Amino acid sequence: MEAQELPVPVGQWREHLPYNSAIDLAAGNTRVFCATPYSLFSVLFNDPVIERFSRVTGLSETGISTICMNENRDKLLVAYNNSNLDILLNGRVYNIPDIKRDNIPGDKTIYRAYALQKYFYLATGLGVIVVDAERYEIKDSWLIGNAGNPVKVTGFSSDAGFYYAATSEGLKKAALGSSNLADYQNWQTIPSTTGAVQVVNAGTAMLLQKNDSLFIQNGNDWSLFYQDGWPLISCEVSEQKILLCERQINGTSRVVILNNNGTVSRILDNTGAVSFPRKTILVNNEPWVADQYAGLSRVANSNAYSNYSPASPQAVGSGEILTGN
After folding, report:
1. How far apart are CA 247 and CA 245, in angstroms?
2. Among residues of the chain, what percentage have pLDDT more than 90?
3. For 66-98, what is each residue's pLDDT tens digit?
4. pLDDT at 107 over 50
5. Which of 90, 109, 89 is nearest to 99 (CA)?
6. Which helix (H) or strand (E) holds 89?
């Protein structure tokens, strides 16, 4: 079945941004949201209807860095390249411009976001920034680098007792009940975790992506969990499975789906949906792949796939417009 786009009402504008490149995705209650480097669109689970979101429909910016859905799967955080934030809820857009407007020096890039209860935790080039998704405001900023300095954070997660942050100084953790997590002294750096890229809760244990390997927490120790020699692009947990996007230097790409014991459940390769996979999630045990070159695809158990990228130009125009007659 081909995807259908919602019609544009008479008298309203439509943007013509490239949608062929997908960099991130998140699942709501009824649809998948997909981010491109320029904008956002959604596809219903059971009816391939596409809806576009852009500045024309109320978004605050054009360039997107990452998106994240809250635990109730009704609020979508959209983080932009210039550190501006939007939260989408029931067709409304709530803007949080505080990070963009702040004159603090340093890298304000938002690399990833993590949802827990009513908060979004932003992994940024400065540290961790906490967003209150009910009050639509910044709640706190945690500069957790050595001596309280800013530190690049590229991953964030939690379990029943601790927050975990993957930083350029290694993996750091702090107790959930700490009264002042803005104090770097409440954060402990885990030894031998230099190269930490991402940290995720796999349900039964925490997993650390260190360079191109996964390590599993066992008490106070971290042991090798999975390594296959492929460069890792991303590591996510979805529906109790671990989803790895991988790409070789020669361009060969695949998605590896692991069980939570480290065994391989499925590999997606030799398909037009996987050429430079940036992120993969499961929806009712079906993989949805955000691919930098192939856009958004849904892969069936037979490895047949459906592509849902809206019709759009291949790239941003950079020339003159000529008119005739």
Report:
1. 7
2. 81
3. 999 999 999 999 999 999 999 999 999 999 999
4. yes
5. 109
6. strand 85-89
Closest listed residue to residue 243, CA positions, set 187, 303, 202:
202
Are the C-beta atoms of 237 and 249 separated by less than 8 Å? no
* Tens digits of residue pLDDT in 249-273: 999 999 999 999 999 999 999 889 9
* Joined tokens for residue 155: 């991953």
**pTM of the full predicted structure?**
0.91
DSSP state of 100: H
Question: CB–CB of 297/19 below 8 Å?
Answer: no
- CB atoms < 10 A from the CB of 95, how many? 16
Ranges of H-type helices in the chain: 98-101
CA-CA distance, 217 to 193, in Å (whole number)? 12
CA distances from 103 to 53, 94, 100, 156, 195 (A): 29, 22, 8, 24, 29
- Residue 259: CB partners within 8 Å, gap ≥ 6? 241, 242, 265
116 forms bridges with which residues in the sheet?
119
3-state SS class at 147: helix
